[in-house]
Design brief:
heterodimer, A: about 280 residues, alpha/beta, Rossmann fold, 2 domains, 6-stranded parallel β-sheet, about 10% strand, elongated, B: about 280 residues, mainly alpha, 3 domains, two-stranded antiparallel ribbon, 8 helices, 2 strands
Chain lengths: ~280, ~280
């Protein structure tokens, strides 16, 4: 018993850099030895997928707001890639924009990469409007007239000269809007696009933010939701093309296992040493 | 050596600089930290100028053309663009103590404008629609989350019964065989609960998801009701509320861990794939 307590006392004093090392190994190893754990699709992800599936061939476009920054791209970039692949594969069209200044580069690289891969054409299948500051004013303004807010696309071409923007005036002409955000932009889309205009809004957010957005799912204010890397992995599973989302989930699962073991050991160590300290206190 | 490889290597080295902090604070980490702040400030300045100040102030005021037509400010006179531009400049008067008070005007307009834009839709989204969604029927409706809810309730029965038998009834002190028996009994009870609830949900008799929602909502509201002493019915409800709050915090914590780990995975993937091409 004394040796067990001794072990736990040592465990409580462990240099936390050993834990960092364990986590680093747990991240790296599954990249070389994939576990191939199954990805089960949850209803919120399925609902978003179904909503994108409803987009018509060459019909009204999806509005995709890529509102994330490089800091949150590991979670959100797999989502944008998977959604854009899905859209282009069913010959639907997409308008891409961002509400975050740092989202400009993220949005541009995501759309250009997916378009090149799927053979989509600028101006016909997709266009990139760029960035406008003033989140709520921008979202409300798009409900009145898109060209008031974005008179030209990100490359200086007036919207009137972009073929796919013909007949696209405001939310009435956009069947679905998806916001991929590492901050409160997805909520802003619910407040200012869904509430006043009845726009169908879907979301993709970092895992930290997912619990904040779940209440909007049951109330129907969000069509569907992708939460963190897990959500991206589920979407990749649905489109049948695994990417960085599914690949990252193996490391994610191993690390979760390590963290659970550490939590159990930490609690055991705490209670065991506490009892020992109590006994030692009674003895003196 | 291509330009892409050079920039990828710069990114990789900066990533390693940042992670070197995990060993201990050092000058490489400080360098990367300061570089991020400086580059971000420069990047944001350029993006804001070309996406906001240039099209909304500079071009309309100086009648610069876009697509062959002079840019108007929202379809009105050019001088109208000066008003928001001037209000924006006034914000900087806070750097001059004698006239710093002037900066309150644009700030007041800004806050007032955003409050006016926001109050109605935010109230609708966060209060009215949520109240409407919470008014759910408890029976006779299909339960889309029945499987997850019933499994969670079955597990809750198992945990509560195990705790009750082992700790409250002191079975743990009566030996390992008795303890295992108590755990098995709790597991059987939990599974039985799951089966019964599933049968009831399948028949549409009750919607356990909605019942949980209502109980959780009332309990949580009771916990935050401070005008009465938390005793009797209110105390019981508040205790249930605490359980729901703890479950909520636990879910948030789990998601936070997942989020932070995802960022690490993203960086490791960048190092192994984009930089070293090992995968």
């Amino acid at each position: 018993m004394a040796s067990v307590t001794e072990f736990f006392e040592k465990f409580l004093r462990i240099d936390r850099r050993w834990i960092f090392l364990a986590i680093a190994i747990a991240v790296v190893v599954p990249f070389f030895l994939p576990l191939g754990l199954p990805v089960v699709v949850t209803p919120p992800v399925q609902r978003l997928y179904d909503a994108v599936e409803e987009l018509e061939l060459g019909g009204p476009p999806l509005l995709l707001s890529i509102d994330y920054t490089p800091a949150t791209s590991p979670e959100l970039e797999p989502m944008s890639t998977a959604i854009l692949r899905h859209v282009f594969r069913q010959d639907a069209r997409v308008i891409v924009m961002t509400l975050h200044p740092a989202g400009y580069g993220m949005a541009e690289s995501a759309i250009l990469a997916a378009a090149e891969e799927e053979g989509a054409e600028y101006g016909e299948d997709f266009c990139f409007l760029g960035f406008q500051p003033g989140t709520s004013a921008v979202i409300l303004g798009l409900g009145v007239n898109i060209s008031n807010v974005f008179p030209e696309d990100a490359y200086g071409t007036p919207l009137t000269e972009i073929p796919m923007m013909e007949g696209i005036r405001n939310y009435d002409d956009i069947p679905l809007l998806i916001s991929l955000a590492g901050w409160s932009a997805s909520e802003a889309w619910v407040y200012y696009a869904h509430q006043p205009y009845g726009q169908r809004v879907g979301g993709g957010v970092t895992a930290v933010m997912a619990t904040d957005l779940y209440p909007y799912l049951d109330s129907g204010q969000l069509v569907g939701l992708l939460g963190g890397m897990r959500g991206a992995a589920e979407y990749e599973e649905l489109i049948g093309q695994h990417g960085s989302g599914v690949r990252g989930m193996d490391s994610q699962s191993v690390i979760h296992l390590i963290i659970i073991i550490l939590i159990i050991l930490g609690n055991l160590a705490y209670f065991m040493t506490r009892r020992q300290r109590k006994l030692a206190g009674e003895g003196t | 050596m291509t330009l892409t490889f050079i920039w990828t290597t710069v990114g990789a080295l900066l990533t390693l600089c940042v992670y070197s902090f995990l060993y201990k604070d050092n000058p490489f980490y400080k360098f990367a930290e300061h570089l991020v702040v400086g580059v971000s400030a420069g990047y944001y300045l350029v993006i804001y100028y070309f996406n906001f100040i240039d099209p909304n102030v500079v071009r309309p005021v100086f009648q610069l053309e876009l697509g062959g037509e002079a840019v108007a400010f929202g379809g009105t006179e050019w001088w109208m663009a000066l008003i928001p531009g001037l209000l924006g400049l006034l914000l900087y008067t806070r750097f001059f103590p004698k006239i710093a008070w002037v900066g309150r005007w644009p700030l007041g307009i800004y806050v007032g404008g955003y409050a006016g834009l926001g109050i109605s839709p935010v109230m609708q989204a966060r209060v009215i629609d949520q109240m409407q969604a919470a008014s759910s029927p408890l029976a006779g409706v299909p339960d889309p989350f029945a499987a997850a809810t019933n499994a969670a309730l079955g597990f809750a029965i198992f945990v509560v019964l195990t705790y009750f038998l082992l700790v409250k009834r002191h079975i743990v002190a009566r030996g390992i065989a008795m303890s295992i028996g108590a755990v098995v009994l709790s597991a059987v009870a939990g599974y039985g609960g799951y089966v019964v609830l599933s049968a009831l949900s399948a028949q549409g008799v009750v919607s356990m998801t909605n019942i949980l929602l209502v109980v959780g909502l009332l309990g949580t509201l009771a916990y935050f009701f401070f005008s009465m002493r938390h005793a009797g019915l209110l105390g019981g409800l508040a205790r249930i509320g605490i359980i729901f709050l703890m479950v909520g915090f636990g879910a948030s914590f789990g998601y936070t861990v997942m989020s932070r780990i995802s960022l690490l995975i993203g960086r490791v993937s960048f190092l192994l794939t984009d930089w070293l091409h090992l995968i």
